Amino acid sequence: MSSNGLMVRVLFAAALFTGAAAAQNSPQDPVLAERGDVKVYRSEYEAELLKLSPEVRPGFANNQRRITELVTRLLIQKSLAAQPETAALAQTPQNAVRIHLESDRVLAQLRLEDIEKRAGQEFDARRAQYEPRARELYLAERKKFEVPEQVSASHILFDVKKHTREEARRLAEQARARIVAGADFNAVAKELSEDPSAGQNAGKLGWFTRAEMDPAFASAAFALKQKGEVSEPVLSSFGWHLIKLEDRREAHPRSFEEVREIVLGDMRKKYVDEQREAAIAAIRDDPNVKLERSAIDALYVRPGAPTEAPAPAK
């Protein structure tokens, strides 16, 4: 290992030790669970959350069961790691390599996160310079930023999980006959619809686009032309529906001012991605990289050939 690599590992180990010690003495970092000398701190819980995707992370804390399960998993993990037998296992060559690679993985991830953070800050510092380009992209792709056609509708559902398909259709036809004869659609929805929300909204769904609904339902809803028009029974993945058109909004473009942050956000993401990929490519494509071809080729196992099991850890 190079002296630089060794120094990184020493600093990494020191950071782990210092962070753990700070956690034990910080009133801002309370203990969440403990078992004897093993403790799980809030900072460790928050660090574990960083492994989740950015889309999932914000809503994780909305579920108490998930929080408890994560804290319990961390306690089990730390308890197993603290057992005397574990220290001996860490000394075997095979396990030492695994630990070595895991530290590399964490350090590499920290470095990539740092590159992404710095790239984002660089873009933000020059944000005003990117706005003319953002306007050009908007003008070139105005269709992309168009507000799609929307309809507002009410529906009555007869659930095929509660009836046979034929029974559900017959109930829908009977309900439609009542409405055609003069009954109020939304009153019938409140009385008969098997959509759980019908008791509160009388079947009113509000505004939606085609993409937001079951394809068969959306196709029938958008095929209605006149306000107040009621569809024939429509079969979706939920059951048979009657649909009444309440109103319609045609597709229309949004102004640049409305979509400026969306366009700049896309540009920022592209810039950050490019900086991250450039850092990776600088290593991957470095002319000084040398692949030991004969050693790599020796790893190849012909399909169907017997393989030798790896030696057990000692």
Describe what you observe in this structure.
- The structure is a single chain.
- The chain is an alpha+beta fold.
- Among the domains are: 3-82, no CATH class; 148-249, Roll (Chitinase A, domain 3), CATH 3.10.50.40.
- It has 13 helices and six strands.
- The strands form two sheets. Strands 4-3-6-5 form a four-stranded antiparallel β-sheet, sandwiched between helices. It has a two-stranded antiparallel sheet with strand order 1-2.
- A hairpin with a 3-residue loop joins strand 5 and strand 6 (239-249).
- The model has no long low-confidence stretch (mean pLDDT 90).
Provide the succession of SSEs. HEEHHHHHHEHHHEHEEHH
Q: Proportion of β residues?
A: 5-15%
Global outline? extended
Question: Helix proportion of residues, in percent?
Answer: 55-70%
Kindly list the characteristics that best describe this protein.
alpha+beta; two-stranded antiparallel ribbon; Chitinase A, domain 3
Strands, helices and their partners?
Layout: H1 3-25, E1 31-35, E2 38-41, H2 42-49, H3 57-60, H4 64-82, H5 84-89, H6 93-125, H7 127-140, E3 150-159, H8 165-180, H9 185-192, H10 198-201, E4 204-208, H11 215-223, E5 234-235, E6 239-249, H12 256-284, H13 293-297
Antiparallel strand pairs: 1-2, 3-4, 3-6, 5-6
Helix pairs in contact: 6-12, 7-12
Q: In a few lines, what is going on in this structure?
A:
This protein has 314 residues and is α+β, with helices and mostly antiparallel strands. It is built from 13 helices and six strands.
